[in-house]
Amino acid sequence: MTPIPRTWTFAVASLLLLCTGSAVPVEPSGKSLREAVERNEIVPLKSIMDWIESHYRGQVVEVELENEGGDFGYEIDLLTPEGSKIEFQFDARTGDLRSVSGKDIEGARRK
């Protein structure tokens, strides 16, 4: 398995804390991600990662939680076995897939 580049470690580590029980502040409100998950305001990252793994082949190389005026969204980049990057956008409140973009999306789908 290829290691995650150091520049992405903070974003990935921060979001993985959702699964471990530690709190990470969300700007600008100061709420913790953990509290938002506990209040069912944000779908746990593990659920999103499980969905991607079950539907696509590749390795997640970057994860971001975006907050645009209270509209939370996960942006997840997947590196396919062929070396293409696919970007997923999920609604963090519902877990719904908003969009998928990149090269050879169909080739990365699991059958």
UniProtKB/TrEMBL annotation:
Kindly state which keywords UniProt assigns to this record, in alphabetical order.
Answer: Signal
Signal sequence extent: 1-25
Q: Where does the source fall among the domains of life? A: Bacteria
Q: Which residues cross the membrane?
A: none
Q: Which stretches make up the PepSY domain?
A: 52-99
Designated name of the protein? Peptidase YpeB-like protein
